[in-house]
Design brief:
The chain has about 290 residues and is α+β, with helices and mostly antiparallel strands. Among the domains are: about 100 residues, Orthogonal Bundle (Helix Hairpins), CATH 1.10.287; about 80 residues, Alpha-Beta Plaits (2-Layer Sandwich). The chain is built from seven helices and eight strands. It has a five-stranded antiparallel β-sheet with strand order 4-3-2-1-5. Strands 6-8-7 form a three-stranded antiparallel β-sheet, with helices on one face. A hairpin with a 2-residue loop joins strand 1 and strand 2. It is elongated and about 105 Å long.
Length: about 290
């Protein structure tokens, strides 16, 4: 019984094999080989193209008429992105041509209609926005920016996306079409702002003078400060302190370090002169209900 069933299966397979001619297998094999060859050539073209682009822009950076390094990095990344999409598009179209007549498709629908047919409106928007970002110089590779809720260093500007590396190392990928508002912290000097609170019992004029002297002394020691620090005066009357603000203009991206060190210097100067920096009062309630 089992042998009879196996014989029937074998006969059916032989009949199917006879109907499907050996020429079809050979033809299919050649098509697959051509597809693999196209993929291989596309990969080689892309890798060689990347090397050529990198070397070209490296040579530009060393030439007598070299551009800003951030702009060179941006143009290099964008050129590589353009190359990648171009190679992928041509390779995909060539592979598609192994199975159907692509010229008739393009002639009938047109490239624009074909793109819309594949739902590429957002892709076109991202690409156009990418060109505006580059040519308007909104930001470049290496700039520290805020785009929407994302803040970090621009790691790559592609034809379609921008990659931003955050302070903790996280990588955020933003489609260029979603870049609406950009805050660039790298372009131009930045203001360091320090608020220091002193107690209501303190001599405010004396405190301001001490802060000013400490800030001016620190400015002479730190070349990152490009303008003389200014004590703006009382900014707020808090619950437990009087808030005095000091500002100093610094080189790009140096304001955070200046603010930290300035707070330390001012705190030490106030301590030396017996002016306390208060903290919010606390009430401790013991288990017996008494306040302490």
């Amino acid at each position: 019984m089992i042998l009879g069933s196996l014989a029937n299966v074998g006969e059916k397979f032989i009949d199917w094999f006879r109907q499907y001619k050996i020429e079809n297998y050979i033809q299919t094999g050649f098509v697959l080989l051509r597809v693999l060859f196209i993929i291989l050539i596309a990969g080689i073209v892309y890798k060689v193209g990347k090397v050529i682009i990198k070397r070209f822009f490296e040579a530009q950076s060393r030439s007598r008429f070299h551009m800003d390094k951030r702009k060179i990095d941006t143009l290099s990344a964008l050129s590589q992105s353009l190359l990648k999409y171009l190679v992928y598009f041509v390779a995909g179209l060539t592979i598609l041509g192994q199975f159907m007549d692509t010229t008739s498709i393009l002639a009938t629908a047109g490239i624009g209609g074909l793109a819309i047919g594949f739902g590429a409106q957002s892709l076109v928007k991202d690409v156009i926005s990418g060109f505006f970002i580059l040519f308007e110089e909104q930001y470049a590779v290496g700039d520290y920016v805020s785009i929407g809720d994302t803040t970090g260093t621009v790691e790559e500007i592609g034809l379609r996306i921008t990659k931003i590396r955050g302070f903790k190392g996280e990588l955020t990928v933003i489609p260029n079409g979603q870049v609406i508002k950009v805050i660039n912290y790298t372009r131009g000097n930045i203001l360091a702002v320090v608020d220091v609170g002193v107690s209501y019992e303190s001599d405010v004029d004396k405190a301001i003078q001490i802060m000013k002297e400490a800030a001016l002394k620190y400015a002479k020691e730190n070349s990152d400060i490009v303008e003389e620090p200014q004590v703006l005066g009382i900014m707020d009357l808090g619950d437990s302190n009087i808030v005095i603000r000091i500002v100093a203009r610094t080189l790009p991206m140096k304001h955070w370090g200046v603010e930290r060190e300035l707070r330390k210097r001012i705190k030490e100067a106030l301590d030396r002169n017996g002016i306390p920096v208060p903290y919010p009062p606390q009430i401790i309630v013991h288990e017996d209900g008494k306040e302490g």
